[in-house]
Amino acid sequence: MKRRIVLLGPPASGKGTQAERLAARYHIPAASTGELLRRERARGTALGREADAWTKRGQFFPDEIALRVVRQWLATCGTKAFLLDGFPRTLGQAVAFDAELLAHRAELDAVFYLALSDEAIRARVAMRITCARCGASFSVSLHGVNEGSACPACGEKLVRRGDDRPEALEERLAQHRRHTEPVIDFYREAGRLIEIDAAADRDTVFAKLCESIEEAVPA
Length: 219
Ligand SMILES: [Zn+2]
Known about the structure:
By secondary structure, this protein is an alpha/beta fold. The chain has helices spanning 15-26, 33-43, 46-56, 63-77, 91-103, 118-127, 140-143, 166-189, 202-214, and strands at 4-8, 30-32, 82-85, 110-115, 128-131, 137-139, 158-159, 193-197. It is globular.
């Protein structure tokens, strides 16, 4: 059973949803850097304020901030089992994180990449509407809902996310190519990347992830 897991993927690859389902099925603590930093901001910690300052200047925060927040989280949940969603996001983060795990003799058991073509991403995002209250997302074509419909999960009005608008999406895709593709190559070259076709439906992707997680880890 693989228990130290990294889940990577471009926007709209279903990463967040799959991370949640895997965490629930295998009782593995899961986190994303975005969510961890939101919590730091909400609590008004020094780390949260520092991350905020970078975001306000319209810049990406340095690798060190992402590493610190992940390190802090691992200190609370331990390094026996964890699932990181969307981290490491840059090659610098991946290299530093690898060295830290090695020092703790807690190397990653699996690095998954949910692969999706740019065209498929654009098509998915064009159809996607989100609930601002509970964060659930729905597809106009698959779920028969539209902007302004009530969220099937909590009843709040569904909206289109600002970063799902076409220009914002192109920027996110460019960021992904620039920063995250080198991370994918890093794990691929090390023979540790497990690529999963994210174009399939959610349940098929989840089944493939489960199958791979349940394969024994080589001793
Ligand atoms: Zn909702």
